[in-house]
């Protein structure tokens, strides 16, 4: 019986933490780090403020957890960018997942964008370690593909920048896109068209000549 109760408590804890992180992601996206108070996050999550402080002692700790979660999600999206993969298929999959994240989890992208625009005051160390190492690893894979003649010679670094810009644009500038779409969010067919267009624009020029 005790084991069952512990299991229930563990699931409840995981659910509460997930709710807090999801709420924090929304609040930080809308209000920034400075305006994203613990009280506001607790209200958004529907939990007492004491619960937030219990799991995350400071707002800075919570914020870094949110940013870390965003990065880990993006890193997982690029799992197929590895030496043995077919280059265009792997990059197409990466674009697909990044665009789906822009559609389903736009607040995360906005948190990241706001932080970088402000000069990364809270996560500069993270950029210099985790992001730099991850980017250099992906660059090495793309350079290998080019050396093997499986991609046209391009700058791997700027290819990654172009993919990030094209995919995250749909989250970071959602209001602009909605305005240009007659005041409506993109529907399913329009998202499919966006995926096809972005992949065509970014990948067709990479085929070996």
Intertermini distance: 67 Å
Strand fraction equals: under 5%
CATH C-level class of the largest domain: Mainly Alpha
Describe the main β-sheet briefly. Answer: none
CATH topology of the largest domain, by name, is Tetracycline Repressor, domain 2
Spans of 5+ residues with little confidence (pLDDT < 50)?
none
Instruction: Write the H/E string, N to C.
Output: HHHHHHHHHH
Integer-rounded radius of gyration: 20 Å
Kindly report the name of the CATH homologous superfamily of the largest domain: Tetracycline Repressor, domain 2
Looking at the structure, what is the overall shape? globular
Give the tally of structural domains: 2
In DSSP terms, counting alpha (H) and pi (I) runs of 4 or more, how many helices? Answer: 10
Mean pLDDT reading? 93
The level of helicity is over 70%
CATH architecture of the largest domain: Orthogonal Bundle
Short structural description:
It contains 10 helices and no strands.
How is this structure best described in words?
The protein has 209 residues and is mainly α. It folds into two domains: 1-57, Orthogonal Bundle (Arc Repressor Mutant, subunit A); 60-206, Orthogonal Bundle (Tetracycline Repressor, domain 2). It has helices spanning 2-35, 38-45, 49-55, 59-77, 87-104, 106-117, 124-147, 156-172, 174-180, 188-203. The model has no long low-confidence stretch (mean pLDDT 93).
Can you lay out the helices and strands and say which pair or pack?
Layout (H helix, E strand, L loop, with lengths): L1 H34 L2 H8 L3 H7 L3 H19 L9 H18 L1 H12 L6 H24 L8 H17 L1 H7 L7 H16 L6
Helix pairs in contact: 1-2, 1-4, 1-6, 2-3, 5-6, 5-8, 5-10, 6-8
């Amino acid at each position: 019986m005790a084991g069952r109760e512990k299991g229930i408590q563990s699931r409840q804890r995981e659910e509460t933490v997930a709710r807090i992180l999801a709420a924090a992601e929304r609040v930080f996206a809308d209000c920034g780090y400075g305006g994203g108070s613990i009280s506001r996050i607790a209200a958004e999550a529907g939990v007492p403020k004491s619960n937030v402080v219990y799991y995350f002692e400071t707002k800075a700790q919570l914020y870094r957890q949110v940013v870390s979660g965003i990065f880990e999600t993006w890193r997982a999206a690029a799992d197929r960018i590895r030496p043995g993969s077919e280059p265009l298929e792997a990059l197409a999959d990466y674009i697909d997942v990044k665009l789906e994240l822009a559609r389903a989890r736009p607040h995360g992208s906005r948190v990241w964008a706001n932080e970088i625009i402000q000069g990364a005051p809270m996560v500069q160390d993270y950029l210099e370690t985790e992001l730099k190492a991850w980017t250099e690893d992906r660059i090495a894979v793309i350079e290998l593909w080019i050396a093997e003649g499986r991609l046209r010679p391009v700058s791997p670094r700027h290819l990654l920048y172009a993919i990030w810009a094209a995919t995250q644009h749909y989250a970071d500038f959602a209001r602009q896109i909605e305005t240009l779409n007659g005041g409506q969010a993109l529907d399913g067919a329009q998202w499919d068209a966006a995926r096809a267009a972005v992949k065509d624009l970014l990948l067709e020029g990479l085929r070996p000549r």
